[in-house]
Amino acid sequence: MTSPTEEQGKKGFLNFIEKWGNRLPDPFFIFVYLAVFVVLLSWLVSSLGATVIHPGTGEEMAIRSIVSGEGIRFILAETINNFTGFAPLGLVLVMMLGIGLAERVGLMETAIKKSILNAPKSLITYAVIFTGIMGNLASDAAFILVPPLAAMVFASVGRHPLAGLAAGFAGTGAGFTANILITGTDALLSGISTEAAKTIDETFIVTPVDNWYFMSASVIIMAIVGAIITEKLIEPRLGKYTGRMDKSFEPVTKQENKGLRNALIAAAVYIGLIALLVFFPGSPVRNEDGGIIPSPFLSGIVPIILFFFITVAVAYGVTVKKITESKDIPAYMAEAIKDMSGYIVLIFAAAQFISYFNWSNLGIWLAVNSAEFLTSINMTGLPVMVAFSILAALLNLLIFSGSAQWALMAPIFIPMFMLLDYHPAFVQLAFRIADSSTNIITPLNPYILIVLAFMREYDKKAGLGTLISLMLPYSLIFFGVWVIMMIIFALTGLPIGPGISLRM
Questions:
Q1: Within 10 A of 57 (CB to CB), how many other CB atoms are there?
Q2: Model confidence over 401-442: pLDDT tens digits?
Q3: For the chain, which residues make up each domain, given as ranges?
Q4: Chain centroid to CA 104: how far?
Q5: If you write DSSP's letter for every residue of 77-103 in order, what string do you get?
Q6: For 27, 159, 268, 350, which has the most beta carbons within 10 A of its beta carbon?
Q7: What is the dihedral of CA 19, 20, 23, 26, to 10 degrees?
Q8: What is the pTM of this model?
Q9: Which DSSP helix (H) or strand (E) runs through 60?
């Protein structure tokens, strides 16, 4: 028999979003259809004789039709290069070699358990949110680890387990984009942003650290905000939990504690060596003037992070006997790369779409005309950036994959905002806070069903409406606070990353 909460989950606007969102094709085919659309649009616009003046070079550029001899030769000659030369592909796969190794040997799970289980009772909520946010180092695995563990911890101290589950899901989902460390998300999105920025400036690079200052500050702020939401809004609404609590969790073992200790020692040694390399007089990783911004150190941050994760993962894995011989290391790395197969397939289609868009000159044509329109209506200040962020939040209700959505939006909006003198990394930031905030309320999030299953272990009548009603305050308040933070950084000129601010 259907419960009232389940009926509630099947009605209203959320059901409309779920119904129509589920009718969308797989993201792979979305990019295939968009590539076909670009082919046809390039032919139409070209046949009308449209041209555009490149804002950087002053050159008059005609729209090139892909439905032409030149266009067909381009497709045949560049399909493989479009794929293998697509910046996000290499960045993400390299990062996953290290992060995936750390996840496979169990370092991520142990760190998450240790963070929550050892927290003082008064700080449990903050620890849960903080761990959830930092858990994106383990990528999607955090969605499965943090919420149920948080529910059990809350129940063990006499608090409502659904409040713990909500806090864990909020930190993991709504806080997904933030981290004190540089993660795979930074590498993935910056690679797509770089590809889009090349429409205006072929030499422009968005690095994985360009949002680092903002995202590091976000970890602390969102942990506090999330804890306040949980304790002031969610727990009072849930009331006292009276159900059975017969679930238990495995504490961190002595061997795992030793492994974590050795991983921390390895991390300290590695960071110390990197610091010596950076600050050594005449260091080769500094720029010609001896500075850090820009420098080979920042442009080479990805391999530095890769070796960091390999170092700590090996230290942990050897200690807990997950790594017993050298061949175990590449074997775990190979398993991690297997999990990226869906992403690799998606990138093949996305790379073709973006390449067609840029080769035809439609990207620069659309960017210039859009920028001129916004200038003509005097909408070039911060409100246009906030409006863009709201648009991204709404689109995330229909396209859950952040990489797919950014690959779709970046080629249009980054060139347009660059012509309005906005830094691509700031545009990327506006997207990230929107995409992350709404992760926990879109029915297209595949982990919503998993979290709902965890939820029903404590409330058999819980339905989609129950879960969404719990998560909506987190989503709206996280987004609101992040927008305020973005405005403060913009107005005060605070850098969002090394040498990166609102304007170029």
A1: 9
A2: 777 788 878 888 899 899 889 999 999 999 999 999 998 887
A3: 13-362
A4: 21
A5: HHHHHHHHT-HHHHHHHHHHHHHHHHH
A6: 350
A7: -110
A8: 0.70
A9: strand 60-62
